[in-house]
Amino acid sequence: MSAGTKDYYAALGVERTASEAEIKKAFRKKARECHPDVCGDHDAEERFKSVNEAYDVLSDPSKREMYDRYGTVDPRTGAGAGPDLGDIFGGFGMDDLFSVFFGGMTGGAARRARTRGRDMAVQIVVTLEDVAHGVEREIVVNRLVPCDECGASGSSDGSGTRTCPDCGGAGQRRTQRQTFLGMVQSVAPCERCSATGHVIESPCSECNGQGRVPDRDHVRTQIPAGIDDGQQIRVRGAGEAGFRGDVAGDLLVTVRIAPHEYLERHGPDLHVGLSLTITEAALGADREVPGIDGDVPVTVPAGTQFGDQMRVRGEGLPRLRGSGKGDLTVHAIIEIPRKLTKEQRELLGQLAGTFGEQPRATPLTRLKEWLQG
Ligand SMILES: [Zn+2]
Ligand SMILES: [Zn+2]
Q1: Amino acid 93: pLDDT
Q2: pTM for the whole thing?
Q3: How far is the CA of 151 from the centre of ligand 1 (A)?
Q4: Which among 144, 115, 165 has a CA at the least distance from the CA of 207?
């Protein structure tokens, strides 16, 4: 399915002239309707994804403008600098995001309601150049955000809460059942108050009294120079909003580093290959290798062998802790010519004659020499 065939306005059921607020409202309504947890239709998940994709584009003014103009938004080159659409759902499940919103306070062990927002996890990919200099990235997350409508209180008119009449404020209910083993008593979370012990006098219609609503948020975070592949950054308070204004969870950002075209990284050190002709290797040469910040001059000594290493100090990556930079190690690759011109063959023949004075080593004697160093 190509992005060009999608009608994002139809997916949300809004006019092309819809305001930002109308789009947000339509998204919330649709997200509630077709969330796979509430909707039994076989295509609910597919529809839920389309609604999210549509909202991703239409809620971002630059993406929306591009979509209006060209009828498509390439997530990789799109105007938004955020991660691509595939990343948006990466790291955390949609079920996690909505289960609390839809009253998922189940599980017999839930003695007390969890009212703090949960931590959420996302993964982002950065380049080796980003690692060299550090970078600020904007991450798009689907999360529960405080409800604007009721100021996260969950109450439509500020009348607040009262003690739950069903559980008397305990947040749990004891039930007794007669079984063939005798009377069995069980404790279950109170459904009426979602195990909080309080009910809202007049619940906010936007958030159903939860004080938080699903939304798409843009979180900015600084990726420090020298960060390692797989390291995690904790963005305080950027996770799920708390229940009725309680403390929000954190966003845990796992940083993955994309492979580089020609540089390989080992800790703060970088490695690069350098192709040399047989004459450059034999006679020595002044060459340049591509480093992380442009070309780096390197002196190839005469008599360089295949695999010899030349170390350029301070041309590696910054150290995450401590100071200074790692080194750039240049690995010599000596190219033996596959084709020779007539002239080259003659010259090499003459050269071979000059080596001919020495007794020709057999493969076995060479191996012995090599083993003796
Ligand atoms: Zn509300
Ligand atoms: Zn209750």
Answers
A1: 38
A2: 0.62
A3: 7
A4: 144
Residue 245 Cα to ligand 2 midpoint, Å, equals: 19
How do residues 125-163 score in pLDDT, each as one tens digit? 999 999 999 999 999 888 999 999 999 988 888 777 889
Question: What is the distance in A from the centroid of ligand 2 to the CA of 219?
Answer: 35
CA of 175 to the centre of ligand 2 (A): 14
Among the residue ranges 42-46, 92-96, 361-365, the one predicted with the least confidence is 92-96
37 band by pLDDT with thresholds 50, 70 and 90: low
Cα 146 to averaged position of ligand 1 atoms, centre (Å): 8
Ligand nearest to the CA of 170: 2
> What DSSP string describes 42-70?
TTHHHHHHHHHHHHHHHTSHHHHHHHHHH
What's the CA gap between 22 and 154, in Å, rounded?
Answer: 21
Q: Of the ligands numbered here, which is closest to the C-alpha atom of 211? A: 1
Give strand pairing partners of 350.
none
Q: What are 180-186's contacts with CB under 8 Å, separation 24+?
A: 186/108
